[in-house]
Amino acid sequence: EFLQRADLEAELSAFCQKSGFDLLLMMTISFTESKEPIRELVVFSHSASCREQVSKYLEQAHNPALNLSPISCPHPHISAYQQGNTLASRKKLLPLVKDFLRECDGDGCLRDTEEESEVPPTPMNSLVDGCPLDEGLPRITAEDLQDKLHQMESADL
Question: What is the model's pTM?
Answer without folding.
Answer: 0.65
